[in-house]
Amino acid sequence: MGDAYKLEQWGSMYHMLGGSAAGLVGLLFIVTSLHITKITDNPVLRRLANQRTIYLFLLLIEAVLVLMPQPLQALGVELIALNLFGLGFPLSDVYIFFKSRNSGKSDDWAIMRAVRYIMAFLVGTAGGVALIRQSLWGMYMVTASYVALLILVALNAWAIMFTRD
Question: What is the pTM of this model?
Answer without folding.
Answer: 0.86
